[in-house]
Amino acid sequence: MPDRAPQPVDRQLPTDEARDLISLVREIAQREIAPHAAEEEDAGHFPRELFTLLSESGLLGLPYDSEYGGGDQPYEVYLQVLEELAAARLTVGLGVSVHSLSCHALAQYGTKERQAEYLPAMLGGGLLGAYGLSEPSSGSDAASLRTKAVREGEDWVLHGTKAWITHGGIADFYTVMARSGGEGARGITAFLVPGDAEGLSAAAPEKKMGMKGSPTAQVHLDGVRICDDRRIGDEGQGFAIALSALDSGRLGIAACAIGLAQAALDEAVAYATGRQQFGRPVADFQGLRFMLADMATQIEAGRALYLAAARLRDAGRPFSQQAAMAKLHCTDTAMKVTTDAVQILGGYGYTADFPVERYMREAKVLQIVEGTNQIQRMVIARHLAGPESR
Fold first, then answer.
1. Which of 41, 83, 135, 370 is catalytic?
2. Cα–Cα distance measured from residue 387 to residue 217, given in angstroms and rounded to the nearest whole number
3. CA 135/CA 139 separation, integer angstroms
4. In the annotation, is 370 catalytic?
5. 203 to 140, 206, 217, 245: CA distances (angstroms)
6. What is the pTM of this model?
7. What residues contact 40, with CB distance under 8 A and at least 6 apart?
8. d(CA 236, CA 17)
9. Where are the alpha helices (DSSP H) in 222-367?
10. With a cut of 50, which residues of the chain have pLDDT below it?
């Protein structure tokens, strides 16, 4: 079959700087990420050296203030960078999104002194972050978390276990939500915990159906002692901080999902236009053409949805409902598009010789992380009809 190179997405970008940024990201993706993606995912290799390159290139702090080493980019631009990275390899796109999520609490709720002390290394100093909210017994019901934070003089001592932590065991810092007060959401406080803190350890990475190159592990906090200046926000404000971060993080997941779906569509188009059956390309058959058309339409709709939510965020307007809609639609689209891509390639699609089977396995987790799609529907419905009756 002849090679058919995918056409770059025609993006609407607000500035020449943003266009140059996307060009840089595409160059890195084509040269450093995509050529090694299949082999490294199969081997379960996390490309830490690549994240060092991304940090040196200014790509790990794009939506944050340049005063602290960020890129001063609007979310509208940052998310399109994530999409480009995820199209090359989801482990990388999602890893950048999680890192950005882990910086959110300090960047938005930390004191000026703590921001000046910690953010430059977090945003542009080669560090890698992780986000610690979920626990073995509290996933969707995050407000019931059990990790304890006990005040001892000027310090806090943390005990507990966090679960499903992307970059667990390899992160340089963790944004951790822990219970410092009573039951429920108002008893939770946020902390910035160093990755090398005494008493912090990680279990063996989970054995997953996809994204094998991205380590996901439980993280244990066994008497981890940190000073009070690593508390983020007020005592009891942690759950509100967590939800604020998740609204933005869900947009990151949505952008990654569209990048993955775009990669699957590009692969399906290349195969369909090159594969001959009954004396002509299989792309000539109407049933298959309709599948490609539906895939492309859903991708464009998802891209428009996450960008609309991002523009609300950039304008300082409420966007929680739109973030939930974007996460729901874009991740469902990724699952459908990658499944259809496998179908279009037929038997070849089911083999590891082509990347679409990997895309399909990877897409599934996007419907689960940072709030399952059932939770997204609950969030959307609450905006429409108010809280559920008790």
1. 370
2. 33
3. 6
4. yes
5. 22, 8, 6, 25
6. 0.95
7. 47, 89, 91, 213
8. 40
9. 238-274, 286-314, 320-345, 356-366
10. 1-2
